[in-house]
Amino acid sequence: MAVPSRGRTSEILSSLPLHILLYVNGVYYIFYFLATLAMIIYKSQVFSYPDDFLAPDLAVLFLMAILEVPRLYLGFKGNLTEAEGPLGLSLGLTVGSVLLCVYLLLWQSYVLWADVLLNAVLLAAYTLESGLKVTAIAAFVS
Question: For 41, what's the count of Cα atoms within 13 Å in the CB-facing half-sphere?
Fold first, then answer.
């Protein structure tokens, strides 16, 4: 006969869909970075790409890559440890990544059809991820 346990039982609150989406987004971002870098190199060779605009476009891409590492790390850490602090920081970094993605989508010197497609997929992933982060934070707080 099983003896009922006293006290508080432990319930897992971490989000499996968020964890999966963070993993998929990390893999997709590697592809996104390499494809966007290749397209910037292609555009600089084929089109009359102004030299004054090449450096800012590359700087935005590399800044986005630098932001992506702590964004994903804090997202994984916050979700697995069920802590709202790291998830909130990751959500804040996601806002920064979205702004940089919008720059590459709208204000880049030349925007190819492939740029639009890659950025649209990345923005959709960021949107889903942000919704799941807010949901996870709400579950952790309550």
Answer: 6
State the amino acid at position 47 in one-letter form. F
Residue 131 has φ and ψ, to the nearest 5°, of -60, -45
Distance, CA of 89 to CA of 82 (rounded, Å): 14
Instruction: Provide CB contacts within 8 A for 20, sequence distance 6+.
Output: none
**115, 105 Cβ separation under 8 angstroms:** yes
Which helix (H) or strand (E) segment holds residue 128: the answer is helix 113-141
Q: Please work out, in degrees rounded to the nearest 5, the angle formed at the alpha carbon of residue 72 by the alpha carbons of 69 and 75.
A: 145
Short-list 126, 138, 140, 134, CA closest to 97: 126
Q: What is the per-residue pLDDT across 24-45, written as a single tens digit (0 to 9) for each?
A: 999 999 999 999 999 999 999 9
